[in-house]
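Hi support team,

I'm opening this ticket because the web form for multi-chain structure prediction keeps timing out on my end. I have pasted the exact lines I submitted so you can reproduce it. The total is 544 residues across two entries, so I didn't expect it to be a heavy job. Is there a limit I'm missing, or should I split the entries? Thanks in advance, R.K.
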Amino acid sequence: MEFGVEEVFETAGMILFEHFDIRAVTLGVNLKDLVDRDAGRLAQDAGERLAGLGKRLVSEAGALSESMGLPIINKRLSITPAAWLIEPCAQADAPLVLAQALDRAACEAGVDFIGGFGALVQKGTTAADRRVMESLPQVLSSTQRLCGFLNLASTLAGMNMDAIVRLGHILKDMAAAGPNGIACAKFVAFCNAPEDNPFMAGAFHGGGEADAALNVGISGPGVVRAVVDKHPDADLTELSEIIRRTVFKITRGGELVGRELARRLGVPFGVVDISLAPTTAMGDSVGRILEGMGLERVGAPGTTAALALLIDAVKKGGAMASGRVGGLSGTFIPVSEDEAMIEAVEVGALSLEKLEAMTAVCSVGLDMFAVPGDTSAATLSAIIADELSIGMANDKTTGVRVIPAPGTVAGDSVDFGGLLGRAPVMPVNRFSGAAFVARGGRMPAPVRSLRN
Amino acid sequence: MEKERVFVVVLGKDQKGIIAQVSGLLFKHGANIEDVQQKVMDGTFVMTMLADITESASGSAGLRRALDELAESMGLKVMLHNEAVIKAMHRI
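Hello R.K., no limit was hit. The queue was backed up. Here is the completed structure from your submission:
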């Protein structure tokens, strides 16, 4: 089989100049067999298993990256939701004991994050769910690499407004517990959370999964942006075709890595998550793709349509490339991790309301945005309810990762450093939805859930 | 034994001795060159070499390190990809 110099150069150029990489390889690990009444024993057993598997993951991923010539950036672990693990533990601080062991294991293994400290509460909360929820401020502010999640709504079950109301207060406590509200950056509130998501902060190893599964998150906003920039005169049909072809190629690269890494680890290959995931690196931006399509700034009229075209083309290209597309598989539009999104907020082009509209057509929701420190718990709950409603009504995943940054006002900026980037503090509508969310209860599932 | 083949991609300013230096290095590391192509693209000299490294004691890691050193001394960029990556991305 022969390859032209252009084809080989295209792959090399994607990596050299356009930030193409395998963004995350995430090993999902079942821990249900380690459940024990003794929290200390559960924590010790879980820590040992995860440290061992994590070390192998890091080592094999490094060797594979070297032999393939494809960068693999992040190596991560995800676990069975923590609330299921601590069910029988009477010890009051069981969530914290487990959390600290998970964090130590991640550090020892050298993985950058471990996900799954959370609960599925879309229909109701168990005692264990509540204990995990209430532990989140202390857990996420006293650990380094542990990430938390809650699934608070689903298309089938409706929305657990009681839990969302409580979460508003928990988020305030979480924000106050660490500098710049950093603990909130390690937590996602979901609707329709996927059980095989390789991306943080929302990764967990779901109940329908095998003992272990290797999931891969590819990346490539820089690659897509480059092809969009090269075709300034293409109409939207042509543009979609061009993006599809590009995403096909990068997904195939991701699938190759996933399949081979799973083989080397001796675990089943789970999914390729085809989400376009921006980073703070110059040019590795989803916002710049949208601007390359012809928007003066992200947030300008036309933004939602441009994003809809982008994500549709990404899905079609990815689905053609792999029979194992899963996870979130959308387009990430985090504010703090994308240079164009940051600029758009700062120049007044992008509002919270427009950001919410954008999430109606793409995964994965309102991500990594900061709001003023005096934003009330009820308003946080209302913002979450709005966003999760979009997921619930449209049978898709949506999430919220909000940082009510202590001591800040709209127009300030919060720097989290590294991958988490810098979040300009966005103004929030000054009118209240507090009385609405305070009604509590469970919002019924939409009629589209009645499909049997 | 299944063959392990890699693509060596060299980019930069055209200059004397690129093919000689890169092929000499590959020979030294026990690689067998099966194909060479070169082209000037957007003003940049691009050369690709397909090399069988099955019998190379250095493996892809050792070869990559040596190529990086050579590329730096010549002011070039060099990438090394397993053939499987190119095949996956460019062929169905």
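A quick check on our side: The mean pLDDT of chain A is 95. Let us know if the file doesn't open in your viewer.
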